[in-house]
């Protein structure tokens, strides 16, 4: 009997043992099936990876590489979106396809579905803005379809608008559990859905101003962020199991590989921007703030430049994904464009509120905020309003490089981006090479449709068409 027991225990993970009661074969601490809100929470855990990336920071020229400069020189290499599909999106799709199986003990099922839709939309918005046309309607089918077709970015945007509206309209009273973002507060999820819609609409300002204005104003009317308390933030913990990527690099591995770029410092230091002392540390040579030219080999030493600030690489540093300041910058631009009432008066009001909200979000010293905002180079002006709004928004989006890059591509600001070795800032990222071999026909069709058959970093996504 002893030998039989040992044998059963040794194979239990493979086939189980018929001599054991079913309850003995179940580990209550390792459930074989996740609940709906657990899958949603798992999808949330991947949010930090959307901004915790040196590549994103390079695309927006927030940081300069000090050690391996070639990594920041926009090499013609592919980037993978597989991890987003295989991880968070598949978790969310599982929830959306199992509505009848979800448990109401974790909060209203319609709210679980609504949150899953909003998160799916956010991830897909991120993907399509980086790569252009991507698998969408035919994706996430598992074994049913290993070679999904690519949807146009235009059709993806239209469906995301509709899905976000649908998610917002189906919400009801009652919190959901396992919500590590908003602790189940559905009012905040509603505001997030509308704010994402509004920001997406602004992205279309150069390609379809009529649709952009229509979606923008509708989202505003439905209710967007109204304070920094509404911010869509991923909160790391002071714990090795959920710590900041930058902490693991800078503090744990002692890597001084990233300095503030000269591009960034030039837009902040001359105006005594109080966020600069948050974003970076003074250099260790003379205590001044010094940016490293993007793409330039550091031949002097990292002590000459401003490295990442302590708050930025703290173990529990937050990741700001969608913010109140962003929504205010968007409304400032919309007022200037005539999409919403108020003209320059309202545009200036939103602009000033946006900058102050950004300062508050980052924990900057607000003592001299009035003097800062009164400087001619910072103060609102009807003549160069779009440039000032865009530049301050770019500064605000520090450490969310992909979003800062998207806004730069749309507006062309800030106006001091450099082209190391003659390489301009890319317009998109290239599809992972595996798609050429594993999804050949659909890959070729997407490349032909968008770029005439030749894929590169400098093909334009739909909303950035020249």
Automatic annotation (TrEMBL):
Highest taxon, organism lineage: Bacteria
Per its UniProt record, what SUPFAM superfamilies does this chain match?
A: TPR-like
Which PROSITE patterns does this chain map to?
A: PROKAR_LIPOPROTEIN (PS51257)
| Coiled coil regions, renumbered to chain | none
Q: Which InterPro entries match?
A: SusD-like_2, TPR-like_helical_dom_sf
- Report the protein name in the record: SusD/RagB family nutrient-binding outer membrane lipoprotein
User: Which species expresses this protein natively?
Assistant: Echinicola rosea
Q: What broad taxonomic lineage does this protein's source fall under? A: Bacteria, Pseudomonadati, Bacteroidota, Cytophagia, Cytophagales
């Amino acid at each position: 009997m002893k030998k039989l027991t040992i044998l059963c225990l040794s194979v239990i993970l493979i086939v189980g043992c018929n001599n054991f009661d079913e309850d003995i074969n179940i580990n209550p601490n390792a459930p074989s099936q996740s609940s709906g809100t657990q899958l949603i929470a798992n999808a949330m855990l991947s949010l930090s990876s959307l901004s915790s990336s040196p590549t994103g920071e390079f695309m927006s020229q927030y940081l300069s590489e000090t050690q391996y400069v070639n990594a920041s020189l926009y090499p013609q290499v592919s980037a993978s979106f597989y991890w987003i599909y295989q991880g968070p999106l598949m978790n969310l799709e599982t929830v959306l396809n199992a509505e009848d199986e979800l448990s109401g003990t974790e909060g209203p099922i319609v709210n679980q579905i609504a949150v899953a839709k909003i998160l799916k939309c956010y991830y897909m918005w991120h993907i399509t803005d980086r790569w252009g046309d991507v698998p969408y309607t035919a994706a996430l089918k598992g074994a049913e379809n290993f070679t999904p077709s690519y949807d146009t970015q235009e059709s993806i945007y239209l469906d995301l608008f509709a899905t976000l509206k649908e998610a917002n309209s189906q919400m009801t009273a009652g919190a959901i559990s396992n919500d590590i973002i908003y602790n189940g507060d559905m009012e905040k999820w509603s505001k997030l859905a509308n704010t994402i819609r509004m920001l997406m609409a602004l992205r279309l300002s150069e390609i379809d101003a009529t649709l952009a204005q229509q979606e923008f104003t509708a989202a505003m009317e439905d209710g967007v962020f109204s304070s920094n308390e509404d911010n869509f933030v991923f909160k790391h913990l002071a714990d090795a199991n959920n710590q900041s990527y930058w902490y693991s690099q800078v503090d744990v591995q002692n890597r001084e590989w990233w300095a503030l770029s000269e591009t960034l410092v030039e837009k902040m230091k001359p105006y005594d921007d109080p966020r600069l002392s948050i974003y970076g540390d003074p250099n260790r040579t003379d205590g001044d703030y010094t940016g490293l030219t993007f793409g330039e080999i550091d031949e002097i030493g990292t002590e000459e430049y401003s490295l990442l600030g302590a708050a930025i690489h703290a173990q529990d540093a937050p990741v700001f994904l969608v913010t109140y300041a962003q929504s205010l910058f968007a409304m400032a631009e919309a007022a200037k464009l005539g999409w919403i009432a108020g003209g320059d008066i309202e545009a200036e009001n939103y602009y000033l509120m946006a900058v102050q909200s950004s300062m508050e979000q980052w924990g900057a010293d607000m003592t001299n905020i009035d003097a800062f905002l009164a400087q001619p180079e910072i103060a609102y002006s009807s003549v160069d309003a779009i440039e000032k709004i865009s530049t301050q928004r770019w500064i605000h989006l520090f450490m969310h490089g992909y979003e800062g890059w998207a806004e730069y591509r749309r507006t062309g600001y800030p106006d001091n981006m450099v082209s190391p070795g003659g390489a301009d800032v890319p317009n998109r990222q290239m599809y992972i090479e595996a798609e050429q071999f594993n999804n050949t026909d659909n890959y070729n069709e997407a490349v032909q449709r968008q770029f005439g058959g030749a894929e590169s970093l400098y093909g334009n996504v739909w909303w950035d068409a020249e």
